[in-house]
Amino acid sequence: MEDVVAEVIKKALGESSIFRNREALASDYVPDKLPHREEYIRRIAELLSPALRGEKPSNILIYGLTGTGKTAVVRYVMKRFEEHAEKVGIDVFKFSYVNCRNEDTNYRVLFKIGSDLGVKIPFTGLSVAELHNRLREYIDSRKLSVTIVLDEIDFLVKKVGDDLLYRLTRINDELTQSKVSIVGVTNDVKFVETLDPRVRSSLGEVEVVFPPYDALQLADILRERAVLAFKEGVLEDGVIEYCASAAAREHGDARRALDLLRFAGEIAEREGASRVSLVHAKKAREELEVNAAMEVVRTLPYHSKLLLLSLAVMKGFAESTGSLYLTYRRICETLGVEPLTQRRVSDLINELDMLGVLTSRVVNKGRYGKTKEVSLGVDPATVLKVLSSDTRIGEYVKSVKVSGDR
């Protein structure tokens, strides 16, 4: 065992035969060029440029599906603004970037903003109102022009409401010598409809919508990053096009394309290959799809897990929702759990279908009428492996045989 670990350590510390800089394929990497987003770079830069003069830019709300370049464009523009401010000696321009999925409470958001601005505040112990007041006083006393980017802003609002947004969008009413602008970034095009009308009018002064990338655009993005990430000549023909095409079929997600290309390189590296081939790219796609589906399964509500367990027990296929419901009821009885109604289970099937964990389709049985067939989107054994880690059903899962019966 020690020899195996030593071998892994030696490989990890040695020079990669595949990668030059794998960080260039990370989703949060900000490159010097963003292909096919020049129009949006110009638009965001124009909207935020008053901050460089000490004036208040309009608040901006940016929409777009995952992986359409929203965050990359905003961070690129702010990076260039900061470089310019440092070059010409402008010290009043400040920028704060907050990922609201990571900083998921009002206090943590304000703490991150304060940290980015250089405010010395305790990590805990203050009320949100007191923390807000300290930030406001610090900003105003230094005559700052501050731009705050709230990425995945919808996640914060869904979790804790829009009280903090109201405070931030109205902060300029309390400032006498400084200006603050808010840039909200979201994947949810209906997000603004959930906001209080007062917040809606303040936050959404200007709205910018990012369209998905197509396969050709994704290929251009991957080529730019591949030059930075891989050693010369290690990518075989067709790898970039395959990764771009696969991601384009999934809503034009550049993040997905980059992950796929990086993972293909890691598989080649793991196998000791000298080049990254289409075989590695296809393996990467399969593994990423399974990993993504399993992460969804791991975070599902209890009865959704029981429903997937029922389908896994049936070898991953049910010829009707009725037969699936019977298996689900048997499992509930065994575990001493009150089963949901058949109608609610049908709703769960539709929800899981939308998540891609299972697929359902209506089949015409002729004189026997129509029925809905349901099948798992991943291997039943893999589903059982994930569900076995749930303490509520783990022991039962370990006793299950994938044969339609216990």
Tell me about this structure.
It is a single chain. The chain is 51% helix and 12% strand. The chain is an alpha/beta fold. It folds into 3 domains: 16-21 and 213-296, Helicase, Ruva Protein, domain 3, CATH 1.10.8.60; 38-210, 3-Layer(aba) Sandwich (Rossmann fold), CATH 3.40.50.300; 300-398, Arc Repressor Mutant, subunit A, CATH 1.10.10. It has a 5-stranded parallel beta sheet with strand order 2-3-4-1-5, with helices on both faces. It has a 3-stranded antiparallel beta sheet with strand order 6-8-7. The mean pLDDT is 89.
Condensed summary:
The protein has 406 residues and is of the alpha/beta class. It is built from 17 helices and 8 strands.
CATH topology of the largest domain: Rossmann fold
What's the level 1 CATH class of the largest domain? Alpha Beta
Tell me the number of structural domains: 3
Q: What is the spatial order of strands in the main beta sheet? A: 2-3-4-1-5
Main traits of this protein?
406 residues; alpha/beta; Helicase, Ruva Protein, domain 3; Rossmann fold; Arc Repressor Mutant, subunit A; five-stranded parallel β-sheet; three-stranded antiparallel β-sheet; 17 helices; 51% helix; 12% strand; globular
Topology:
Layout: H1 2-13, H2 38-48, E1 60-64, H3 70-88, E2 93-99, H4 106-117, H5 128-141, E3 145-151, H6 153-160, H7 163-169, E4 179-186, H8 197-203, E5 206-210, H9 215-229, H10 239-248, H11 254-270, H12 278-298, H13 302-313, E6 317-318, H14 321-335, H15 342-355, E7 358-364, E8 370-376, H16 380-387, H17 394-398
Parallel strand pairs: 1-4, 1-5, 2-3, 3-4
Antiparallel strand pairs: 6-8, 7-8
